[in-house]
Design a protein that fits this description.
This protein has one domain. The protein is 73% helix and 0% strand.
Length: 310
C-alpha cells in the first residue's frame, strides 16, 4: 500500500501548534481514565465514555451532512474491527485499573512498533528497514527498563502491565486490519460503528464484573468522563483525521513522541505517580524509538495512517 498523501502540503505553524495540542490531549487520556476510576466502575466508565462519544459523533455527522450508511459488503468488516476494538479497550481499562497512568501511557505508545512488525508481513510495501528495526529495538528496550523498575515490584502492577501489553497487541492487529479496509470508509463511520457496537458489551461487562457501577460521582470524575468522551474520543479523533487528510500521515506522526511525554508528566503531576530513573529511561527509549521510526523522508510510507486514542 502506498502513502495516500504523497504530495501533502507542509504543516503550517498553526497546524504544528494544533498537532502538538492534540498529542498532549491524547497523551493525557490515561490520566483521565484513572481519575474516572475513583468514582465509576472500570467497564461502566468505558460504556459511559463511548456512549457519549457515539452520540457526539452521530450528531456531528448529521451537522456536516456526512452519510453513515454502510455499503454492501462493509458490515462484516465493521463487525470484525468493532469486535477487536471492544476487546482491546476492555483489556486496556482492566490493565490500567491495576497499573499506573504513566506506565499505561508508555505501554500504549508501543503501538507503532507492534504495527511495524505486523505490517511487514500483512501490508504490501511496509517492510522493516534497518532504521525501523533500530527504532523497534529502542522501544522495547524501554519496556525492559519499566519491568526492572523496583517501585513496580507489586504483583498487581506487573499484572496490569501485562494486560495492557495484551491490549496493545490486539490494538495493533485492529490497526493493521483497518489500514487494509480504510479506503472504503469515512473516518466517522469507523469510530461511530465501533463505539456503537462496544457500548452494549461494556455494559454487560459492567453488570458482571464491576463491584459498583457508580459510587462517587463528584466534579473531578464527571470532568474526567467528559474529557475522555468529548475531547479525545470525539473532538480529538475528528480533528486528527481532518489534519491527516490535509497534511498526510508522515507529517503528523513526527509529533507522536509528545504523547508518552505528556502521559508520564501528567501522571506524576496530577496523580502523584512515581517518576523514577528507570521510568525516565523507559520514556527516553520509547520516545527515541518513535522518533527513529517516524522521522523519515516523505517517499517512505508510514507504518499506519489512523490514530485512535485508548
Amino acid at each position: 500500500m502506498t502513502d495516500p498523501h504523497p504530495s501533502s502540503p507542509e504543516l503550517s505553524f498553526g497546524a504544528m501548534v494544533f498537532t502538538v495540542f492534540l498529542c498532549v490531549l491524547f497523551g493525557s487520556n490515561a490520566v483521565a481514565i484513572k481519575v474516572a476510576f475513583s468514582g465509576i466502575g472500570i467497564f461502566t466508565s468505558a460504556a459511559i465514555r463511548f456512549g457519549i462519544a457515539a452520540i457526539a459523533i452521530y450528531l456531528w455527522s448529521r451537522i456536516i451532512g456526512q452519510t453513515i450508511a454502510l455499503k454492501k459488503g462493509q458490515f462484516h468488516q465493521v463487525l470484525i474491527f468493532s469486535a477487536l476494538f471492544t476487546v482491546q479497550l476492555s483489556l486496556f481499562y482492566l490493565g490500567l485499573s491495576k497499573s499506573n497512568a504513566s506506565r499505561g501511557t508508555l505501554l500504549s505508545n508501543l503501538l507503532p512498533f507492534f504495527i511495524l512488525f505486523l505490517a511487514h508481513f500483512f501490508i504490501p510495501g511496509d517492510r522493516i528497514s534497518r532504521r525501523k528495526f533500530f527504532g523497534i529495538l529502542l522501544g522495547f528496550t524501554g519496556v525492559v527498563f519499566m519491568f526492572l523498575d523496583e517501585s513496580a515490584i507489586r504483583a498487581g502492577v506487573r499484572t496490569g502491565d501485562i494486560i495492557i501489553l495484551g491490549a496493545v497487541t490486539i490494538w495493533s492487529c485492529s490497526a493493521v486490519y483497518l489500514k487494509r479496509i480504510i479506503s472504503a470508509f469515512h473516518p466517522l463511520q469507523v469510530v461511530l460503528y465501533s463505539t456503537m457496537f462496544s457500548v452494549p458489551l461494556f455494559l454487560v461487562e459492567a453488570f458482571l464484573w464491576d463491584r459498583a457501577m457508580i459510587f462517587n460521582l463528584d466534579a473531578s470524575v464527571i470532568a474526567a468522563i467528559l474529557y475522555q468522551s468529548l475531547i479525545t474520543a470525539s473532538f480529538g479523533f475528528v480533528a486528527w483525521n481532518t489534519l491527516l487528510k490535509k497534511y498526510g500521515a508522515v507529517s503528523l506522526h513526527s509529533f507522536l513522541f509528545i504523547m508518552p511525554i505528556a502521559g508520564v508528566a501528567l501522571g506524576g503531576l496530577v496523580l502523584g505517580e512515581p517518576i523514577t530513573a528507570k521510568i525516565l529511561l523507559a520514556l527516553a527509549c520509547i520516545v527515541g524509538g518513535i522518533l527513529v521510526v517516524h522521522w523519515h523522508p516523505k517517499k517512505e510510507a508510514p507504518a499506519y495512517s489512523i490514530r485512535r486514542s485508548l
